[in-house]
Every structure is written in structure tokens, then in C-alpha cells.
Amino acid sequence: MTLTVLVPSSLVREAEDKREATRKLGYVARAATVFRADRLVVFPDRDGERRFGGEFVETVLRYAATPPHLRKDLWGRRDELEYVGVLPPLRVPSTTGSESDDSGSLTQGIVTEVGPDGRVRVNCELQHPVSLHVPPSMEVKEGARVAIRISSREPVRARIVDEPLAGFDVSRTDLEEALGRADAGVRIATSRFGEALTTTRLPELASRIEREGATVVFGSPGRGLPAILDITVEDAVEPVDGPGFDLWLNTIPRQGSETVRTEEAMFASLASLTLTE
């Protein structure tokens, strides 16, 4: 199952300062991690942005998704990352297999340079960056995370392998493009105006998501998806032109607060939608 989560660039519009904005993004990253999202996509909502916009949101989320042992070399010092010390740890295992030098160790690296002849320069947990061949089945670019199989550390023998990575990828793209992906699966808009998720509806929906995967889209504080998309409530629960959702879903039908924060909505929604039989 492929799970993609979309959040708007106005995600931290109500944050009073950079520290609070960073902490909020940390909980968004935690939700993506806990429920094993494959992708976390930031889509534009420029009308809803205030002090911190899409570039800030993407940068902090990308930093949070970077394995801790790679953060210093990859990111250095940036203004957007002033308060990353408040980010909660994601605790995604970046290394599997043996903790020693055995041939089975698998770790993550970041591509820092794409060179000729199918070689790239990679930062990983080895003492120095290494130049490695890219498998023919893969296409990588600068900044991409890659899986590295280490067979020896002294001397260094390592190779890039085409294997799934723990954690999630972060990108910034248009909503329509994200919904139009071939692996989008069930495309769900979350909104308090949507169809209520009930115990009767959930089994069939969860089973479908497990088979097809899902793309789940969230709004921002005080600015839900109908406002972001500039559509009426009636349009929201019926098929409309523009972004193609399969359904509008209210995953917290008995909410006791007038608004639910995005990170709260992520935990509540994904907990239900990722249930298995």
C-alpha cells in the first residue's frame, strides 16, 4: 500500500513565531512517520499563508525526514532551521541488519552530487562521502535518499541498492499533479463537511485503501479544503471540476472543537484509514 499525505503551504498560518511553527511541523512529521506515509507533499495555498509559507514548511519537514546522522552535513546552518531542536524525534530506523561491519548492514544516504557515467556522490554513516554506481533500475537526483548496502567498512565496499527506504519523502507540488499520479490510490479530501466516517463505512473503505493505497489531503487551521479550493460546502460533498477527489470524508464526525488542528486531524484520520483486517 502506498500512502501519500498532502498538507497546504498555509499549515502554520496561526503560529505566533518560528519556534511554534517548527514544533507544529514536528508533529506533522511524527504523524507521517507513525502511520508509515510514503510521501508528504506540500501543496500551495498562497492566499492562506502568513509569515511562514511553503518554502519554510517544506524545508523543516525535509530536515525532520533526514536521518539524524546526515543532518549536519546536508543542511548546515539555515535561517529556517533555527529552532529544529524542538522537533520531536521520529525514531525511524535508518539502519537495518547488523550494527557491526557484517555484510548484511543496510543504511540510508543522501545524494550530494550527480556525476557522469552513472555515478553519484553520497553522504552516509561512513566516515567520508563515497562515489557509487547507480543501479540501472534507478534514477536519482541531488538531495535524494538512497539505500546503501555496506559489505565492508575497512576497506570501504558499498553499493546503492534499489530497495524501499524507511521514512517518507517530502516534496512540494500542485494539488492536481499529486492527485493525478498513477499510484494515488483512493483520493480522499478530509473536511468536517464531508461524509461521516462510521463503523459501517470503515471496513469497506479500509479494505479498499489496503488494496489500492491512498492519497489523503488536509486543510490548514481555520482554513479548510473548501476555503482553500474556493468551493461551496455543497460542491465539496459532490463531484466538482478541478482537483479529482474520490470522496470527501469527515473522519472526526463528533468533533467537540470548532476547528481541529491539522496535526490532530492527521492522527485521527490516518489511525482509522490505515486499519487492517
From TrEMBL:
CDD domains: HsC9orf114-like (cd18086). Gene3D superfamilies: 3.40.1280.10, Nucleic acid-binding proteins. This is DUF171 family protein. InterPro entries: Alpha/beta_knot_MTases, NA-bd_OB-fold, Put_MeTrfase-C9orf114-like, tRNA_m1G_MTases_N. It comes from Halobellus clavatus. It comes from the Archaea.
